[in-house]
Write a structure and sequence with these properties.
By secondary structure, the protein is an all-alpha fold. The chain is about 80% helix and about 0% strand. Helix 4 runs antiparallel to helix 5. The longest helix has 30 residues.
Length: about 450
């Protein structure tokens, strides 16, 4: 039979976990196309709109804090179910809102649920996916998040804001149904001393069971190991580098260009700013789709190095061309076309290499004992960085101009590149300490 039960379990896990990140992106982008309609219908002032925009981040930071604890306490699968229910309740409140405070509260609640899901989905998908496909599966989460942001703008051209909210609610229902047949994470079950249940779960997820996959997962129930624990440089690297990259990549320019594309392109005095702004989101999504194949074929390190370098060069060129427009009378149409191409190229390559890999590393590098805490810190840093990118973009653009903004993007991309160059080896789906042990065995042989 071509479509085996193992494949069905893998498909269900991909569907449920990608709905989480799709709705996360959708929530971020939702008020972009619908702000004017909501202000008019709800008689909302601009201060309340600002709070509604920030509400997802406020709920998100709380969700990041509790997400890892829930995943370690209740299990990955149950924690995901909690996240879907919170998101469903929040979007339902938004759909049936009759007062601005209802929209505010609904966005806090669905932001809470989506942040819990963001933390848990990295762990769960990383633990149920086969090692051969793990990097591609984790990279798909970023693709879904990018597509979520873009979908909000596409639906903004087609349907009302209440109907668009219904789409998110329906997707949560689909994700809950996809979660029903899935087993709990085998790694989590082993960590709780339930080895028989772990082997049963692993047999559902693999055509051939390899118990070596669960190596090191039972450290939580080994008191002697815990008493004698001595942290090494490998521990600190596996805990700190993935969250730092997660914090860094949203402020490297891609989120600013996604959220403020229309305003930024208009301020550059380019033709057809609406078309350019929509194209940026679509190309970032396309880049995210390609990232699944790129991570599968080239691993984690090489795409990070190549595409962060390309992004830094693109931002530097954009800053140079904008400065050229300000000080000379060079042919405007030629410069405009060059700017458009560079903006679109930076978004595409950002989607391929920079955005997905930090999530992949968060799902793979930490030991089982610390995975919840590391992903909590990483997701919280990501939400804080998204919040900073929204406010930083407007502030720097207004205070120092577009040239300074893109110079900053180039500088941050170079920092990202240097961190990857010095601290990110190619681990090929292994945890950081598993990679180091394998490297040591190879040196001895």
């Amino acid at each position: 039979m071509l479509l085996t039960k193992t494949i069905l379990y893998q498909v269900c896990s991909l569907v449920s976990n990608n709905v989480v990140t799709f709705n996360t992106g959708f929530g971020f982008g939702y008020l972009g196309p619908y702000a004017a309609a909501i202000i008019l219908e709800m008689e909302m002032d601009k201060q309340m709109l600002t709070w509604c925009v920030s509400a997802v981040t406020i709920g998100g930071i709380v969700g990041c804090v509790v997400g890892g604890k829930l995943a370690d306490w209740l299990g990955r699968r149950v924690a995901l179910a909690v996240s879907f229910l919170c998101s469903l309740v929040g979007w339902t409140v938004v759909i049936f809102s009759v007062h601005p405070l209802m929209i505010l509260g609904g966005r806090v609640v669905h932001g809470l649920g989506e942040a819990i899901g963001t933390v848990v989905s990295i762990m769960y998908l990383g633990e149920v996916s086969s090692p051969r496909l793990r990097g591609a599966a984790l990279a798909s989460l970023t693709c879904s998040a990018s597509f979520g942001v873009t979908s909000a703008y596409i639906l903004g051209l087609l349907v009302s804001w209440r109907t668009a909210g219904t789409v998110a609610a329906v997707l949560n229902t689909v994700a809950i149904l996809a979660l029903v047949p899935l087993p709990e994470s085998p790694a989590w079950l082993v960590s709780k001393g339930r080895e028989d249940a772990a082997h049963s779960a692993l047999s559902k997820l693999r055509d051939r069971v390899d118990v070596a996959e669960l190596e090191g997962c039972n450290i939580l129930i080994d008191p002697e190991c815990c008493e004698k624990k001595h942290f090494t440089q490998d521990d600190y690297i596996s805990w700190s580098v993935p969250p730092f990259l997660l914090f860094l990549f949203p402020i490297c320019g891609s989120f600013s260009l996604t959220f403020f594309a229309l305003q930024m392109v208009s301020s550059m005095q380019l033709e057809s700013p609406e078309m350019v702004s929509v194209s940026t989101g679509l190309l970032r999504t396309l880049g995210g789709a390609f990232s699944v194949l790129v991570v599968r074929k080239f691993g984690r390190r090489l795409p990070l190095l190549v595409f962060s370098l390309i992004a830094a060069l693109a931002y530097t060129a954009i800053a140079g061309l904008l400065h050229l427009k300000e000080v000379t009378s060079v042919e405007s149409s030629l410069v405009n076309w060059a700017l458009v191409i560079l903006i679109l190229a930076s978004m595409f390559f950002n989607g391929i290499g920079i955005s997905p890999a930090p999530w992949v590393l968060c799902g793979e590098w930490p030991d089982m004992e610390y995975k919840g805490a590391v992903n909590t810190v990483g997701a919280a840093g990501f939400y804080i960085s998204v919040f900073l990118s929204a406010h930083m973009t407007s502030f720097i653009q207004n205070m120092f101009g577009m040239v300074a903004l893109f110079v900053l993007f180039a500088f941050l991309s170079i920092i990202f590149l240097l961190v990857v160059f010095f601290f990110v080896p190619e681990t090929s789906g292994l945890s950081y300490k598993q990679y180091q042990r394998q490297k040591l065995r190879q040196l001895k042989s």
